[in-house]
Every structure is written in C-alpha cells, then in structure tokens.
Write a structure and sequence with these properties.
The complex is a heterodimer of chains A (443) and B (85). Chain A is built from two helices and 32 strands. Chain A has 443 residues and is an all-beta fold. In chain A, the strands form nine sheets. A four-stranded antiparallel β-sheet of chain A has the order 1-32-31-30, with no helix packed on it. In chain A, strands 2-3-4-5 form a four-stranded antiparallel β-sheet, with no helix packed on it. A four-stranded antiparallel β-sheet of chain A has the order 8-9-10-11, with no helix packed on it. In chain A, 42% of the residues are buried. Chain B is 32% helix and 0% strand. Chain B contains two helices and no strands. The longest helix of chain B has 15 residues. Classes of the chains: A mainly beta (443), B mainly alpha (85). Chains A and B meet through strand 5 and helix 2 of A and helix 1 of B. Chain B: It is found in: Cytoplasm.
Chain lengths: 443, 85
C-alpha cells in the first residue's frame, strides 16, 4: 500500500506572509494528545497553541476532520535569576499530555527551569437568573428584591479556558530537556543536562532525584543527558540518552538512585574512522519508545536508529537521514548547524518513523518495506488535498531535473519538530514558525 | 601501501584543522598571558566541544556583572501567537 501524503492545512492561515519572523514565533515543540483530537504547539515566546480536530462528518467519510485553533495561552514568562545574573528563557522545551480522565484536558509544559500542569476546560453554559445580580454583573439593591427565583444554566458560546493547576519549580540547576509522564499516570520525570528527577503530579514542593551524573570535579565532565523517557507500559523503567551516543535503561526497582544502569545501549565504533566530529554527530538528540514498548528509536545528527530493548550491543535498524552532509561537516560545525537537535517520531502502528532535516525537508522510513521518502513542508503546495511530491537531494555529480544539490540546501530552514497522530495517518510538521498538517490521501 | 582514500569525515576534519589549528588542543600547548587568559580559553573550547553541556554562564558568575543595559526588558505577554490567527 503506497502512502501518499497530502496537504491539509498550515498555520498561520494568513495569506500575507510579509512579516519578519519574530523570535518569539519560533515553534519549539509539537505534540498530539492520546486520542489525537488535540494538537499542542509551544513556541519561544512561552505560548502554547492548541488545535482541535473537527468531529468527523460521518457522511463524508473520505474527509477527515481538519484542525482548528482551540485554545491559546501564555504558559511561561521570561524570568531573571538574580543570583547567577542569568535570564531564564520562556521558551517551551516540551509539552506532554496527560491521558484524559474527565471532561477537562491536562498537559505538562516546561521551559528550562519550571514545569507547569495546565488544565484546559470548556465552558458552554453559564448561570442566569441570579437574585442579587443583574445579567451584566451589577449588584441589585437587596431591598428591591420581592420574589426569589432559582438561577438556571443556559447555553453560551463555547469558551476554552486554560488555568495553571501545579507549578513544579526549583528542582533543576541545569536546563530541562525532557519531561515524560509515567504509565502509572501519577508520576513523571524531568531531565536536565546532568540530573533526572521524579515528581508526583499532585506534589509540587518536592521531587526525588533518580539520576545524577554530575562529576565531583566539573573539569571531568565529558557527557551530558540529552533526552529521557519513561517506558510506555512498565512504570519502573525509563531510558536516558547522552551526548556520547549511548542510551541507558534504568529500573527504579533496583535502587532509589539509578546511577547504575540496567542496560547500556551503544553501537561499537570503528576506531579507525574516528574524527573530530565523531562524538558531536553521535550525540543523541531524541529518544522515543515505540508504542509497543519493545523498541526504542534514537536520533543522532545523521541517522535514526531503532533498538530492540533485548539487544544492547547494536541497533536492529539504521536509517540515514541526510548522509550527504557527512562531507559538509566542517561548514556545519562553523555555522553551528552540527549542534541542531532533531526529534523523531513513530506512527501509531510503529511501522513508519519520521524525522526532520534541512531545507524544510522531512523524511519517513517504512520499517517493513524499507522504503523511504523525502517530503517538503512549504506553502507552495498550499491547495488542500494536493499530494506532496517526493524530493531528492543530489549528493554529487550530475544533478537530475527536480533534484536539489547539497550546496543549495537552506540550512536555516530546519524541521526539528514533527509529530504523528496516534491513530491516523495525520502528521504535524513544524518549520521555523509555521505548522503544517498533512494527512494521507485515501485512494 | 598507502591508503589514499580518506573518509569524508576525515577530509572535513583536515579542513577544520587547517582553518583552526589550535582547536581541540590542551591549553598547555599554547602561550597565555596569565591564568585568567588560560581559563577563558579553556572555557571557550569546552563550550564548543560539548554543545549540550553546561554553558559557561552557569559557571562563571563573576564575568556577568549586570548593568542596566543587560537586564532583560520584561516583555508584555499580551502578544498572541500568530498560529492562533
């Protein structure tokens, strides 16, 4: 079955694109909720925008619900650490949804230092017919009240409200890079460069440190934590990745402080191939468990690797994202692009993985057919249902028609954040400041 | 027999070394004016090599004496995201 992805929508929807990219508009995270009905984005300005999928029109079964803006709020504000004379950015590093328990939706959002639990609730009724208040809120003179009535709830225009329910602060000395909700739905972890903490969603005044890799002497620091995630089913298991390309799996039942890993995943390197860049490009920028919990995927600068949790000594699958960049590492080091942190994601059935690249390209790898595709997120394919044309980068030599040469790639157009709907073939792709939503074309 | 085929990575490394001869070198191999100069150079190198490691600023508090110009403007958070239309 060939998958063809077609354009669905792009945000902002404005046709006039002449504004300059405001620093605060840069999208920093994208995440679907557990049902896929809601899609949240965070930006450098500390704002969260949530999109909601339209309820499917059962008659028109070929058209899946489109996403419209549902709610937007300011999650984090810039702060100043007076002790260190440092600004604390309001940029949202990660958003993670809680599974829905009641009518309201809950998500965790985090910047470098503080995690917040937000409640998003709908209000579509309001009480009317108060005895002591007029409809506009003005108070009535009690002496004018001659009869009593019972206020009733009447329908009103839908209002979506976001309110912060918990603020988890002051637990991280270094910059938070990951948050992950445990499958027990009661606890979650937060990870910074050197430490991982375990929180209870109800308790904000304390958290447990479960990993601490800070050396006694900071001069000996050689490795930092880059990402961490709880196992989707085993509430005692989590993994964390490092800047040296290793992944450690820890079991919280083994000890309170999980400095000693239960498993260490590392691919052996050919020492003769080692270069100045080897360690930098091996740094893992993202780690994600498969929905099944059997596999995990890691993203390093040039590739995506799938690991079987039962095998530590090498990945079971490796996919090259943009191998043609290997001969450009010198300039990519000079312009700092070599330090870009790309994320990766699984589709709902764990059969396809996706990650971003440069020039607003993103890549998908089908694990079963071993086929891969490169697509582009751009406003040129703006008409709804337009099928995306596969792209190809020409590494060297003769460039065929429609191919793009490595030297014409725009390295400022990076797709770092992508997300896949948990159940359907709908994907959200964030360019610098635009959010694209694509869905597969049902033949 | 000399191996003439260099991996692309090694070729890029050679390019980099040609442009920045002192990169990756231990600070002892170079002349410094004083201990302050030495520590600054070491901190700068560490910063580049460990991209996700602690940035200098969390260690070198004394370097960052705030002046009124340095203090961030508290931006009003009333500007809505453009994604929200």
């Amino acid at each position: 079955m060939r998958k063809l992805f077609a354009f669905l929508s792009v945000f902002p929807t404005l046709k006039d694109l002449m504004w300059e990219i405001d620093w605060s508009d840069i999208i920093s995270t994208v995440e679907f909720n557990h049902s896929g009905e809601l899609l949240a984005t965070g930006d450098k300005g500390g704002r969260v925008v949530i999109f909601q999928q339209e309820q499917e029109n059962k008659i028109q079964s070929h058209s899946r619900g489109e996403y419209n803006v549902y709610s937007t709020f300011q999650s984090h504000e810039p702060e100043f650490d007076y002790l260190k004379s440092l600004e604390i950015e309001e940029k949202i590093n990660k958003i993670r949804w809680l599974p829905q328990k009641n009518a309201a939706q809950f998500l965790l959002s985090t910047n470098d230092k503080t995690i917040k639990l937000w409640k998003i609730s709908e209000r579509d009724k309001r009480p009317e017919g108060y005895n002591l208040k007029e409809e506009d809120g003005r108070y009535r003179d009690p002496t004018t009240v001659t009869t009593l009535r019972v206020p009733v709830f009447r329908p009103m225009d839908l209002m979506v409200e976001a309110s912060p329910r918990r603020i988890f602060a002051n637990a991280h000395t270094y910059h938070i890079n990951s948050i992950s909700i445990n499958s027990d739905y009661e606890t979650y972890l937060s990870a910074d460069d050197l430490r991982i903490n375990l929180w209870h969603l109800e308790i904000t005044d304390r958290s447990f440190n479960i990993v601490d890799i800070k050396p006694a002497n900071m001069e000996e620091l050689t490795e930092v934590i880059t990402a961490a995630e709880f196992h989707p089913n085993s509430c005692n298991t989590f993994v964390y990745s490092s800047s040296k390309g290793t992944i450690r799996l820890c079991d919280m039942r083994a000890s309170a402080l999980c400095d000693r890993h239960s498993k260490l995943f590392e691919e052996p390197e050919d020492p003769s191939n080692r270069s100045f860049f080897s360690e930098i490009i091996s740094s893992i920028s993202d780690v994600k468990f498969s929905h099944s919990g059997r596999y995990m995927m890691t993203r390093d600068y040039l590739s995506v690797k799938i690991w079987d949790l039962n095998m530590e000594n090498r990945p079971v699958e490796t996919y090259q994202v943009h191998e043609y960049l290997r001969s450009k590492l010198c300039s990519l080091y000079e312009n700092d692009c070599i330090f870009d942190k790309f994320e990766c994601c699984w589709n709902g059935s764990d059969s396809v993985v996706m990650t971003g690249s440069y020039n607003n390209f993103f890549r998908m790898f089908d694990r079963n057919t071993k086929r891969d595709i490169t697509l582009e997120a751009s406003r040129e394919n703006n008409k709804p249902r337009t099928v995306l044309k596969p792209r190809k980068v020409c590494a060297s030599g003769k460039r065929k028609k429609d191919e793009i040469s490595v030297d014409s790639l725009d390295f400022n157009k990076k797709i770092l954040h992508t997300a896949w709907h948990p159940k359907e073939n709908i994907i959200a792709v964030a360019t610098t400041n635009n959010l694209y939503i694509f869905q597969d074309k049902v033949n | 027999m000399e191996d003439k085929v260099t991996s692309p990575e090694k070729a890029e490394e050679a390019k980099l070394k040609a442009r920045y001869p002192h990169l990756g070198q231990k600070p002892g191999g170079q002349k410094y004016f004083d201990s302050g100069d030495y520590n600054m150079a070491k901190a700068k190198m560490k910063n580049k090599q460990l991209p996700t490691a602690i940035p200098d600023k969390t260690e070198v508090t004394g370097d960052h004496i705030p002046t009124p110009q340095d203090l961030p403007q508290q931006k009003p958070s009333l500007v809505a995201s453009k994604l929200a239309g």
